[in-house]
Amino acid sequence: MLKQKYGSTRVEKKGVSAFINNKKEIWPAFGQEYRYSHIFIKKFSEKPFLHLKKIKKEKPKIMVLGAGLGVDLIEFKKALNLIKINPTIDVLSLTKSLSPRAKKIVNKDYSQNKAIETIDFKKETKLASNLKSKYDLVVAPLSVGVYTDHPSYNMFLTSLMLSKNGKAYIELGEFKLKTVTRFKKFVEIYNLQNKTDYRFTVNKINPNEEKFLEITRTN
């Protein structure tokens, strides 16, 4: 996905290392069933549904970053099936934590027992190939934009997963203009290094909830 790392070596946020070492995560919000409405209806204001209905793909590709148990994804898929959308759902989490029920509806679990900002995509070429420019929708609630010291970089990695006209919905720990500015700089550097022309827009989903963002790939 990346030709080389940008800037200094990145490490996971303090407190996350214990989960990685134990290969087990413990969070109050961890992909339980109730999280479905909290994420897709409340936090992201039904935007993922509206986007998938608009693109009119019967089998869109979806990536969920920080899926946890993934039980909420069962409810998400049920809701999509009701409007005749049958998605392929992949996940990338800190650890492989999907419940047995969730495993039945998830296509691929790309979790590496690593925080995404620490994955060396220059070496992990197969993983990079599997993720880059593949998804119509990426959803990242309470995950790569929150439990990190590198939100701009993680926004950048998230955006590279989008196919043309794809959208990502990401939650930040807090909104800072410099986070978006740095994200745009990462895209600019990537395009220069790789002779590509990726373009993205970033918008707040709700003016009253600044930390929820929509990233759209426009080309």
Helix and strand arrangement:
Blueprint: H1 17-22, H2 35-43, H3 47-55, E1 61-65, H4 71-82, E2 88-92, H5 100-103, E3 108-109, H6 125-131, E4 135-140, H7 151-160, E5 162-171, H8 177-194, E6 200-206, E7 209-217
Parallel strand pairs: 1-2, 1-4, 2-3, 4-5
Antiparallel strand pairs: 5-7, 6-7
Helix pairs in contact: 2-4, 7-8
Molecular structure report:
With 219 residues, the protein is α/β, with parallel strands linked by helices. It has a single domain, classed as Rossmann fold (3-Layer(aba) Sandwich). The chain contains 8 helices and 7 strands; from the N terminus they run H-H-H-E-H-E-H-E-H-E-H-E-H-E-E. Strands 3-2-1-4-5-7-6 form a 7-stranded mixed β-sheet. The chain is globular. The two termini are 17 Å apart.
Main attributes?
globular, 7 strands, Rossmann fold, 219 residues, alpha/beta, 7-stranded mixed beta sheet, 20% strand, 34% helix, single chain
Give a concise summary:
It is built from eight helices and seven strands; from the N terminus they run H-H-H-E-H-E-H-E-H-E-H-E-H-E-E.
* Coarse morphology: globular
Average pLDDT rating: 95
What is the straight-line distance between the termini? 17 Å
Tell me about the biggest sheet?
7 strands, mixed
Strand content: 15-25%
Please indicate the count of domains: 1
Helix-residue proportion = 25-40%
C-alpha Rg (nearest Å): 16 Å
- CATH class type: Alpha Beta
